[in-house]
Amino acid sequence: MRERSTRARLGLTAVVCLSFIAAACGSDDNKDGASETTAASATSEAAPSDTTATTTEETTASTDAETSVASTEPAAATFQVPTDNCPADTTEAVADGAPIKIGFIGPQTGPLAGFGVIGQGMKVYFDKINKEEGGVDGHQIEVVTKDDAYDPAKSAPAVQEALDGDKIFASVFQIGTPNVAGTRQLYADACVPQALVGTGFPAWGDPEHFPWTTGGIPSYTVEAKVWVQFIKEKFPDAKKVAILSFNNDFGKTYKTTLDKELPAAGYEIVADVAHEATSDLSNEVTQLLAGGPDVIIGGTTSTFCTSLMTLARQGGFTGPILNSYTCQSIQQFMVPAGEAAANVFTLVVAKDPSDPAYADDAGVKQYLADVGTYGPGIDAKVGNVFTGYNAAFYVVDALTRASKMDGGLTRANLMNGFWSFDLKGPIAIGGIGHVDGVTDAYISEFGVMSEYDPAGQTYKVGEGVKIDVEGEGGLYSAG
Amino acid sequence: MRSLPIVIERKSPGHRAFQLLGVFVLIVFYLYTVSVAENFSALRWAIAVTLSIGILGLNIVTGYSGQISIGHSAFFGIGAYTTMILIADHGWPFLATLPVAGALGFLVGAVIGIPALRIRGLYLSLITLGLALAFPAIVKSDDFFGVNVASLTGGSNGKVISSGDVTTTKGFHWNPPSWVPDDWTANDWVFTTVVVIAIILFALTSNLIRSGVGRGLVAMRDNETGAAVSGVYPARYKVLAFATSAFVTAIGGGCFALASTTIGPDTFGLQRSIEFIAGLVIGGVATILGPAIGGVLVEWLPYWAFEVDWPLLGKLEGPQAGILFGVILVFIIFFMPHGIVYGLRQLRSKFVVFVPRLPPPEALSLTPPTASEATTESTQPV
User: Is the Cβ pair B381, A210 closer than 8 Å?
Assistant: First the structure.
């Protein structure tokens, strides 16, 4: 009798020890590129891509001369956020000299704690503005970080606390599709901007229903449009396209867009196959090849990208294959495919601060210098720090313009600022991020379709095709 | 003046006064949370209460009947998803979803209880571990033996109580009814609702444990052969323990869905199960109050570790806060090895000791216990 209870207690002790390990796992040293934000947030099947594109030394990474471009006053009509049901302080300007709190709600602990450094990247840029320019319009900018451990169930209390307790002026780059979806009504009720969220789900471009929420990274809809544009430019002779898509929300986003865009651009869809998570893809690839396609598009992720490339080459297909940027990771998904990964193209949207090809890039140099000055101890090579720094650049741009609007620096004006960008952030590899909320609700619509080089195990960004579908994102509610 | 500890008979006016003191503390805490504390913290307290209910369920099977379960996150998830789906997609009123959530938990619990008939200890915990690992995968699956579960649960995009689909704007608000004070927010009302449900479940469980069934469970835990000889049928009791336990935890999950408003598959992963077990051990295994304390700690400790501006340490970054959380857990278990409830009981017994009311001495021809004899009151897990 005594012995049994001792044994049971031993078992419990073992489990408690496990919990310590779980708690300590929060110190996840996750060095991910910005692209992982999309990958991990929209679908858990999308495996993290731990490298953004690396380029060969000969290629020049960015051809745009300027580091970054701030928005000018937009000429055309932009979306004006409705304030009828808002609290009074939505349209009251911040008191002179009062600090402005910007919230960052994302995982600080748990398996995805690697996103936590985004907040540190923001702080670097804000500190620079606070010190060198005295803040925006005389207001110092602070970052308020709240942890939700990437658990959507923890997001609502975290957001409520940021809104009611810290009285944040706006929240920026919130992480996770379910986390954003579950809290956007809270922001809408409080009339606080939930701007530039860090997920690629297309629902964030919906000013009609959720005027207080905007997206901050390319949506999968935009990516699918980029592919169509790319095929047109790079392979003018191609006529027949085969589509493989993952049978979940993530894959369906690609499929729906391609089903509309490809026929509109004059292409024939010879195969449109959805695969399950349990499939080994052999049947699916056979169906794809049966139509005799000129191009295959892989609207899937993770090892399915590897299988698609391998099986298609085994089946005798030598034409181009387009991969989702969620399976951009070279070591994880490209190297295992070996030679099968030749003639494969992926969208590259952001500069990688660890890539020597960007060593002379003005934006990257400025960023590295700023981290050295304002964020000693922060590892500047981590892509997510750059992502945060870049997001802060957008925020300062929106704040600056809001402070010049009628009524001064109010939450409503700031939200209008978030709906009227015309800029190029330091992380962008090109293009102008335009958003007006009237005809275009998506800010990031530029990227370089880059060919993978199996021999050098790198993406040839410099020789890639720059695609700018700026303004074609449209509105979510318009389909 | 009498020397310490003071000996008080159970069910005497002194003992009742002591119990009323506990109730008074709870009422003060409740009123503080709904009226004084900041509005957002009521929501976090509500979530803590729902976790307490989940741990209460675990306590039935692990604390009282001695079978370790690492699968209670799944029962919690079953309850949460049932409530979420019925509200968001079918427009049910919240309270009507709880019996369904509980019943589903009961059924699945009974099925999981069957292996427990043959397997025990760490081996049983492995089976329940499988359940904890499988649950998020099933929720995300779009072809689980031909059933598209993901279309029901929202798959990896999770589910929002205000709208079944992230793309719609259909609203659900658990708004306070007209008869509560005007200054109550929706959070206060959510908190009140889950507190009332928790009180009912804690009272029911307390009664269950004191009933013949409860004594049968404890007897089976302490000596299965002896219990069987005494007329406790192990098979029935084990399955019943698992099913009842899952029932309580699933209702906790339903309340959790209401309080957290958003859930995803990994909300109910292995981490949640480990939280439950940690909460149970820290609170106090095989006690009624243990789960209540445990639920509060597993919700608030990580938060305090991250949010509080600590003396000497300052404000911590995420990973450091995770370490501090672990260190706090170690300290609690080091100083109160059997959990907080036993630790407090031990502390109290230095001052006040409760003894069972005995029949009048003349009936037994015994003298009442002296103070030194009375200190044999259990301060160890029973």
Answer: no
Hey, is the C-beta of A19 within 8 angstroms of any chain B C-beta? yes
What is the per-residue burial (b if ≥16 Cβ within 10 Å, else e) of B88-118? beeebebeebbebbbebbbebbbebbebbee
CA B319 from chain centre, in angstroms, equals 27
Tell me if the bond preceding B5 is cis, omega within 30° of 0: yes
Residue B126 neighbours by CB under 8 Å, 6+ apart: none
How far apart are the C-alpha atoms of B64 and B55, rounded to whole Å? 12
How many other CB atoms are there within 10 angstroms of residue A225's CB atom?
Answer: 24
In one-letter notation, the amino acid at residue A7 is R
Interatomic CA distance for residues B59 and A76, integer angstroms: 63
Give the helix ranges, DSSP H, for B230-315: 234-260, 270-283, 289-307
What predicted TM-score, i.e. pTM, was given to this entire model? Answer: 0.79
Q: Does residue B173 have a pLDDT over 70? A: no
Q: Do B222 and A5 touch (CB under 8 A)?
A: yes
In B278-297, the residues whose Cβ lies within 8 Å of chain A are: 278, 281, 285
Quick one: residue A323, left, alpha or beta (phi over 0 = left, psi -120 to 50 = alpha)? beta
Given a contact cutoff of 8 angstroms between Cβ atoms, the answer to whether B317 and B340 are in contact is: no
Q: Which amino acid is at B328?
A: I
The whole-angstrom separation of Cα A234 and Cα A237 is: 9
Contacts of A28 in chain B (CB under 8 A): 319
Q: Contact at 8 Å (CB) between A171 and A187?
A: yes
Give burial (CB, 10 Å; 0-12/13-18/19+) of A288. Answer: buried
Of residues B266 and A197, more confidence is placed in: A197
3-state secondary structure of B295: helix
3-state secondary structure of B169: coil
Closest in A15, A154, A276 to B277, CB measured: A15
- Parts of chain A with a pLDDT under 50: 1-2, 17, 20-65
For the segment A374-417, what is each residue's pLDDT rounded down to a tens digit? Answer: 988 888 888 789 989 999 999 999 999 999 999 999 999 999 99
Look up the ipTM and state it. Answer: 0.82
Hey, what are A369's tokens? 């210098």
Contact assessment for residue A42 and residue A200, using Cβ atoms and an 8 Å cutoff: yes
Q: Does the beta-carbon distance from A276 to B143 stay under 8 Å? A: yes
**B139, closest residue in chain A (CA to CA):** A44
DSSP E strand boundaries for A69-204: 100-106, 141-147, 170-172, 194-197
Contact A320, A344 (CB under 8 A): yes
Q: How far is it, in rounded angstroms, from Cα B43 to Cα B49?
A: 10
Question: How distant is the Cα of A50 from the closest Cα of chain B, in angstroms?
Answer: 20
Beta bridge partners of A215: A197
